[in-house]
Amino acid sequence: MASPRVGETDIEKKIRDLQEVEERLVVFSVDILDYHSILIALNGCSALFCCLDSSDGYDDKVVDLEVRGAINVVEASAQTESLEKMVFTSSLTAAIWRENICSEKDVDERSWSDQAFCRKMKLWHALAKTLSEQAAWALAMDRTLNMVSINAGLVVGPGITQQSPRSTMSYLQGAAQMYENGVLAYVDVNFLVDVHIRAFEVQSTCGRYFCFDRIVNTEVEAIKLAQSLSPLISLPPRYECQGSEVYAERLRTSKLNKLVDSTAFIGFSSSPPASFGCYVFLEATVRSCLSAPLLVGSPPPPPWRV
């Protein structure tokens, strides 16, 4: 697991506590801007799940840091002989932002957000994810590194909002437009972790995979999402639906569906396989990468108009 943050959260402490009961687990504190520290941490590893996320929100400076971090992680991975595959966590925001997206019928793994449009609209989270993933892919192909990327929707689940307010709100920048364009989607953290493990274990996986549970394209679904994100987003008292418009869904997950249909769901298995320990550890690390101090200030507008 690679993370750009400094300092230990409660979840990271729990991860370290796992060392006491799991002899094979070794935890490193890695600075993604320090190439050599990454190289040392990867020594002997067969898999890398790389989750880059800023705990302080996103601006133009953070964009550059995330790109540099991605390059360092990929280069170190390419130089690690024992590494079999790298699973790079990206975001749907790296694919859904550009002019006139509402005119497109299908938005899938071939789609990329437009860099100029992201800069113009100051969509720093989208720009960071777009540039860092593109840099990772360019270097991985040059170094012939076996890499797969998971483009996740807004991550939700028990405690996620409280643990990762800045990450949540960074993703939701421009949420009203995402909603109206049919590209506002979310994914449960447990399913996201399960997909990461599948992406590593299934030898045939390659390229990008869009990963989400549901597209929010009606006001009823938008309200449900807002309620799940409380207290970051709050509805007016006694709010009632104002309309019944259904926006066209543009995101496609046919590639992910093939991966999911071909393998058993790890997270809810009645008899956990050997990889279940990896599932538990990854679930904690994903939460750790998303976690941050409480957000101070007013949140942006909710993903619908009232």
Would you write up a description of this structure?
- With 306 residues, the protein is of the alpha/beta class.
- The chain has a single domain (10-290), classed as 3-Layer(aba) Sandwich (Rossmann fold).
- It has helices at residues 10-17, 35-42, 60-78, 115-121, 124-142, 160-163, 165-171, 175-180, 189-201, 219-228, 254-262, 276-290; strands at residues 47-51, 85-91, 147-152, 154-156, 185-188, 207-211, 214-215.
- A four-stranded parallel β-sheet has the order 1-2-3-6, sandwiched between helices. A three-stranded mixed β-sheet has the order 4-5-7.
- α1 packs antiparallel against α12, α2 packs across α3 (60-78) and α3 runs parallel beside α5 (124-142).
- The longest helix is centred in the N-terminal third of the chain and has 19 residues, at 60-78.
- It is globular, with a radius of gyration of 19 Å.
- The termini are far apart.
In a few lines, what is going on in this structure?
The chain is of the alpha/beta class and 306 residues long. It is 41% helix and 10% strand.
Taking pLDDT < 50 over at least 5 consecutive residues as the criterion, the unreliable ranges are 3-7, 267-281, 283-306
Strand order of the largest sheet: 1-2-3-6
CATH top level assignment = Alpha Beta
Helix/strand class: alpha/beta
Please tell me how large the radius of gyration is. Answer: 19 Å
Can you count the beta strands?
7
DSSP summary: helix tally: 12
How confident overall, as mean pLDDT? Answer: 81
**Count of all domains:** 1
Binned strand content: 5-15%
CATH superfamily: NAD(P)-binding Rossmann-like Domain
Distance between the termini: 40 Å
Fraction of residues in helix: 40-55%
What is the makeup of the main sheet? 4 strands, parallel
Give the CA-based shape: globular
Order of secondary-structure elements: HHEHEHHEEHHHEHEEHHH
CATH architecture: 3-Layer(aba) Sandwich
Keywords: NADP, Oxidoreductase
GO molecular function: oxidoreductase activity, acting on the CH-OH group of donors, NAD or NADP as acceptor
Organism: Morella rubra (Chinese bayberry)
GO biological process, one term: steroid biosynthetic process
